[in-house]
């Protein structure tokens, strides 16, 4: 394999076994205890290693002490899977090679099995080289990325205390194996969730004048909400507001105007000011719309700021451009990669410590377009050679920051 250090190439089969073990044993949710145990077991009995865990839902932190005093650099790998039934198609690699998920309701469809394996493999490679390095390498094995804010739990548990810079990668099917993409500044959007409930007076469908129509209220709110984006936010600000949930009435009682109706959705943006503005405007629009429909329509809003924007530190991102160019050709290194409206809870770590999230390609270049699928798809099967690029990228960063000169 071109551009990959020999020690990493020699370790490829072992790193694959880590990945396949984690893939076959997915865990969903904020804890991921079996994966934590598995990770710990890969580092116990090694010299110059400190293992810290036990803080609630904060995974495990493993620190490698190198031969001299120096800075501490952190690397994050998330470990959780999704509630999804994995493909059992004969051509799906985990099926073919016998490491398909043992649980019919869970699957590593976001590639966090790859992240876990890369971080274990990288830890072992760095451990073997620790006499050439100064300072400390801290491996942050994080549970609960998929909606549980595990990164925040690790920050709260002080696992980032003393860390000078922090890095993470995400496997990325829109890039080919051997490609890396990232950008300076905002990279992944923030994600907020909201639930709007309208309570009022129910009644007979034949006499709407004696009721307050909650269904009309929520349907008007939903269309009016898009006008916030169109008229209250600058066209230059990238953002999306989507309603993914609506509920009212009973389908066996079509002539009844229900007392309550509700809907919910998500809002994503790259700008904290836009995020604050939306929260305020959502309340205004819903309350004013309800008032216009009927005095009796009362609005309750639950608004949750889930994950903040993932913002890559400008100086660190610039430094990685140089670091990665030592093993990735110019045409495969995208340093101004398109931002995504997806969200990542690594953002909580980047709010504490300057660092970078970067993307590692997982699609073989000869794969036909119609076969390429994105993350969270039951047929997602990353090319395992991406493990090599992930470990190599982390190793290059560690050496750039910590090599003894
Ligand atoms: Zn995901
Ligand atoms: Zn993910």
For the biggest β-sheet, the strand order reads: 1-2-6-3-7-18-8-17
Bound molecules: zinc ion
Shape call: elongated
Q: What is the CATH C-level name of the largest domain? A: Alpha Beta
Helix content: 25-40%
Descriptive tags:
405 residues, alpha+beta, Aminopeptidase, Alpha-Beta Plaits, four-stranded antiparallel beta sheet, 11 helices, 18 strands, elongated, binds zinc ion
Describe the structure.
The structure is a single chain. By secondary structure, this protein is α+β, with helices and mostly antiparallel strands. It folds into 2 domains: 6-188 and 309-402, 3-Layer(aba) Sandwich (Aminopeptidase), CATH 3.40.630.10; 190-307, Alpha-Beta Plaits, CATH 3.30.70.360. It is 32% helix and 27% strand. It has 11 helices and 18 strands. The protein has helices at residues 6-10, 12-24, 33-41, 93-96, 112-128, 150-156, 214-231, 272-293, 314-324, 346-352, 386-402; strands at residues 49-53, 60-65, 68-78, 82-83, 106-107, 134-142, 165-176, 180-181, 185-188, 190-199, 203-204, 239-248, 256-257, 260-269, 298-307, 310-312, 333-334, 355-363. The chain has an 8-stranded mixed beta sheet with strand order 1-2-6-3-7-18-8-17, sandwiched between helices. A 4-stranded antiparallel beta sheet has the order 12-14-10-15, with helices on one face. Strands 4-5 form a two-stranded antiparallel sheet. β1 and β2 (60-65) form a beta hairpin. α2 (12-24) packs antiparallel against α5. The radius of gyration is 24 Å and the shape is elongated. The model has no long low-confidence stretch (mean pLDDT 96). The site of one zinc ion has 4 residues, from loops.
């Amino acid at each position: 394999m071109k551009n990959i250090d020999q020690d990493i190439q020699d370790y490829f089969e072992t790193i694959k076994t880590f990945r396949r073990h984690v893939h076959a044993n997915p865990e969903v949710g904020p804890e991921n205890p079996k994966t934590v145990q598995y990770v710990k077991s890969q580092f116990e009995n090694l010299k110059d290693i400190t293992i810290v865990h036990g803080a609630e839902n904060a995974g495990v932190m493993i620190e490698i002490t190198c031969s001299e005093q120096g800075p501490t650099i952190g690397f994050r790998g998330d470990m959780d899977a999704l509630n999804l039934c994995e493909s059992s198609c004969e051509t799906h690699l985990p099926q073919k090679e016998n490491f398909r998920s043992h649980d019919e309701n869970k699957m590593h469809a976001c590639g966090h099995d790859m992240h876990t394996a890369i971080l274990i493999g990288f830890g072992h490679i760095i451990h073997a080289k620790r006499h050439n390095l100064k300072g400390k390498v801290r491996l942050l094995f994080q549970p609960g990325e998929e909606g549980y804010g595990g990164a925040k739990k690790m920050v709260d548990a002080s696992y980032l205390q003393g860390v000078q810079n922090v890095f993470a990668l995400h496997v990325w099917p829109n890039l080919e194996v051997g490609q890396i993409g990232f950008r300076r500044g905002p990279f992944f959007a923030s994600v907020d969730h909201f639930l709007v409930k309208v309570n009022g007076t129910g009644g007979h469908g034949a006499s709407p004048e004696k009721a307050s129509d909650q269904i009309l209220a929520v349907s008007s709110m939903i269309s009016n909400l898009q006008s916030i984006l169109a008229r209250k936010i600058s066209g230059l600000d990238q953002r999306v507001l989507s309603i993914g949930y609506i509920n009212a009435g009973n389908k066996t009682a079509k002539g009844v105007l229900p007392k309550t109706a509700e809907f919910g959705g998500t809002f994503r943006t790259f700008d904290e000011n836009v995020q604050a503005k939306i929260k305020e405007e959502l309340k205004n629009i819903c309350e004013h719309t309800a008032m216009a429909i009927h005095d009796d329509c009362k609005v309750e809003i639950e608004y949750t700021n889930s994950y903040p924007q993932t913002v890559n530190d400008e100086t660190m991102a610039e430094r990685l451009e140089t670091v990665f160019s030592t093993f990735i050709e110019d045409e495969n290194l995208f340093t101004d990669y398109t931002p995504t409206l997806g969200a990542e809870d690594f953002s909580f770590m980047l709010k504490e410590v300057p660092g970078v999230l970067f993307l590692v390609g997982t699609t073989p270049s000869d794969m036909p377009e119609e076969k390429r699928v994105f993350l969270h798809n039951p047929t997602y099967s990353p090319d395992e050679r991406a493990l090599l690029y992930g470990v190599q990228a982390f190793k290059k960063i560690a050496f750039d920051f910590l090599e003894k000169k």
